[in-house]
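Q: My collaborator sent me two sequences in one message, no labels, and asked for predicted structures for both. Can we handle them in order? The first one she listed is below.
A: Yes, handling them in the order given. First sequence, followed by its structure tokens:
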Amino acid sequence: MTISIIVQDKVKTPGILEGINYYRKLCAGWLTVTIDATADLFKASRRGSASHDSAIFSLAKPTDFLVVLDREPLLGKRWSPDSLEFAGFLDEIMRGSYHRLLFAVGGPDGFKQEVLARADRVMTISPLTFPHDLVPLILAEQIYRSLTILHRHPYHR
């Protein structure tokens, strides 16, 4: 299975990029984690949320499970899991018939309602606000932590 973390722009902070790549390598024994910047994928001339939203629609296929990270609540879809719940979710998706698991990270203005409505789940990492470069690192670590929980690896302890 492939998990794609979709961001608006490339991660530019060197230490954070190293951390993301560190966790991606640790996950490689179980699955592939990619970081995709919509500005790069679609060479968007305007890097606003409209082009990011359009890119999400282009990337998310019917066989993919789309999790949108957004701070705004959406009735019935908002989800803020702890690590054990996140591991259970990851296990369920990996055992399902989905081709990919996509995590779409919102830009500074969040997502339009159309993207939120398309999402299979709307997730928030925390009520705190984080720099956009930091969110893929947090996700990559939680994906690795979930895999170690599922495989009874001592990392989580």
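Q: And the one she listed second?
A: Here it is, processed independently of the first:
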Amino acid sequence: MALKVGMPLYEGFDSLDVAGPFQTFTFAGMECHLIGPGDACGPIAVTSFEGIRVTPDKTFENCPQLDVLFVPGGSNPVSVLNVGHPGSNPYLDFLIQQAKGAQLVCSVCTGALLLAGAGLLDGHLVTTHWAFKDVLRLFPVRVVDDYRRYVQSGQRITGAGISSGMDESMYIVSLLYGLDTARRCQLAMQYNPHPPFHCGDPADSEIQDDPGMVEDRKTEWQVYEAAKAVECWLRDSKATA
């Protein structure tokens, strides 16, 4: 029987966080599910931050137990946290419930903030998109100081920003199915990146040509406002505990 992997979606999710790994898992022969909220008629369509509208095939209520839980990032993951704390937040409650039976609990990009909000990264070595690493540090986790593409800590695997999900998903396949299957996935996808520029993270070689772009991106994405919102969310969580 094929192993099950599921990606719980939310408004403003990042489509590349989902589509790239989804294809990797498909080539590996996994049973892949997109999960989201639902009503009496079934799953409700969710829109990515780029405007791509997706209708999940499972809801939080009827999703089977997953072998791999894979949480994508998005443009405003804090909005998911602000729905409520565990126990009153359907998204976080779904993560907590699924994590109990999953072989691997994973995220890419800012999806790590949602796993952290669910308490599923406590004490673990983790990463996230470079712009949001200080936000993730507000949780009781250990955030790496470098820009590696993914980090494994026990049954937790967290990916760095967006495109890192490609590397991370192939690594996950290698853990579950072996090196040969992962290599065959890579070949099928012709994944052999040679970027025309070298500004992939703040340590990349061409950042020095325009170092201000790092701060510009954090300002554009309102990272400091996100940090304040997470601080308030955590403070409220302690007050109601």
